[in-house]
Design a protein that fits this description.
alpha/beta; Rossmann fold; two-stranded antiparallel ribbon; 42% helix; globular
């Protein structure tokens, strides 16, 4: 049974360390209660059936590491305005919790991920597709910071995996998705890029109903300022 209006789905795509999480966080904070967030990272396949050494040999930078049927089911729930259930994935052990999290989509759902635009059936679900084009050297620095702080990885291992696995598969699977994006944002984010994103986001928000005179100018000006303020990661 449909419980609410369908959601507008926004895909935020780019390589590891490109700034997907940053952009999704900024847009979510700006939109407030009207937005919710998902990450494709939540849908990695469970590897609890493998011993720890076997889990480390799995290629997590390949699209087949994702549980696509489950992800597509969640997208369908969002489109129908239905509550759904999300997996909880532990990156330190490469396993999925037996506990599922109940989740209700909002008017706008911001979804970040490496491969959201590769599969035609998936990319057709999105109302706005954003690709972040970020140099490899910047992405490596960010991945080092993240994996050491949040995933218990050693620097040498992170560098080796980036060079031998992440970078080649980025060229093969991630970078080509820019052709399917509605908007490609270059690093560092420029005023023009921020303005184009603000305009496209306003167009989605405005579909929900009439807006006061002048609301568009306020919305786009404030969002541009937020994305370009000093100290932000873009």
């Amino acid at each position: 049974m449909r419980l609410s209006e369908s959601s507008h789905l926004i895909a935020i795509v780019g390589g590891s360390g490109a700034g997907k999480t940053w952009l999704a966080t900024e847009l979510g904070s700006f939109l407030g209660q009207g937005a919710a967030r998902l990450s494709l990272d939540q849908f990695y396949r469970d590897r609890s059936h493998l011993p720890p050494a076997g889990r480390e040999r799995v290629n997590y930078d390949h699209p087949r590491a994702i549980d696509w049927p489950w992800f597509e089911h969640v997208l369908a729930d969002c489109r129908a305005g239905r509550p759904t259930r999300l997996p909880e994935y532990d990156f330190s052990t490469h396993t999925r919790s037996a506990r599922l999290r109940s989740w209700q989509p909002k008017a706008v759902v911001l979804i970040d991920g490496l491969w959201l635009l590769r599969r035609p059936r998936v990319r057709r679900q999105f109302d706005l597709r954003v690709f972040i084009d970020c140099p490899a050297r910047v992405r490596l620095v960010r991945r080092l910071r993240r994996d050491r702080a949040n995933r218990g990885r050693e620097s040498a291992g992170v560098r080796h995996r980036f060079r031998c696995q992440v970078a080649p598969l980025h060229r093969r699977f991630v970078a080509p998705q820019a052709r399917w994006a509605d908007l490609v944002l270059k690093h560092p984010l420029t005023p023009t890029g921020a303005a184009r994103l603000a305009d496209r986001l306003w167009e989605l928000v405005a579909r929900r109903g009439p807006r006061p005179v002048g609301a568009r100018a306020v919305f786009t000006t404030e969002l541009r300022a937020r994305l370009l303020r000093p100290g932000t990661v873009s």
